[in-house]
Amino acid sequence: MMDIALYSLVDDMVSKAGTEGVVEYWLRVGESYAERMGKEAYVGWPAFNVAMKEGRTALTMEGDVNVLTDLAITDRDGDVIGYVYALKTCPMAPTMNRYIQKIGPLPESDGDVSDSFNVRIQDSAVCNYCITHQKFREVASNNITVAKQELECLQLANKGRLGEVKMLPENLSRINVDERHIKSILRSASCVYALVIKGKTISDGELGL
Questions:
Q1: For a 10 Å CB count at each end of the chain, is N or C smaller?
Q2: To which H or E segment does residue 146 belong?
Q3: Rounded-to-integer distance, Cα 192 and Cα 163, Å
Q4: Residue 68 pairs with which residues in a beta bridge?
Q5: Which domain of life, per UniProt (predicted)?
Q6: What is the pLDDT along the chain (209 residues), one digit of tens a residue?
Q7: Tell me, what DSSP letter sits at residue 200?
């Protein structure tokens, strides 16, 4: 019943507030959710990555995350300032699948809302729920410090239920990663993002492999 209710809610909100109104609502939901998680502090990247692997940080509330320690991001001095992470399964995938199995195709409002977000804000949503999840990671990462330095989340790519892929070339460029690496990661993941020390300058070299 909740699966049906969620999509009915989106339909109802679109009819009353329009797609732009729903986008703004999901952004507020993501921000509010992240703020409620509180602040976290880690002595260094090893401690933070262990917390990610063991699901002890706010950023793993969405589900299991692969910590890609072979994809270290370095600054111009060669110091590690971040890593790439992969969310194994979209938390909304079960809801989508149950809706399709029990009801039928997803409502058009789902695509209408994500299209509005992609055009107006950032071309990175494969469904309307991506809006909340990406905003959540953005705000939650700002509430986490590694070695007393605040983090920043860079959305890199995600994959929809039918295999469609959204990539953000500007963020891939920021960490000097080839999109072919990200495509290979998406074979066993639904969403890929990077966490880096906020304000740090990333090296001009290729991402460490």
A1: N
A2: strand 144-146
A3: 14
A4: 84
A5: Archaea
A6: 566 677 778 888 888 889 999 999 999 999 999 999 999 999 999 999 999 999 999 999 999 999 999 889 998 888 999 999 999 999 888 888 888 888 888 888 889 999 999 999 999 999 999 999 999 999 999 999 999 999 999 999 999 988 899 999 999 999 989 999 999 999 999 999 999 999 886 765 444 44
A7: P
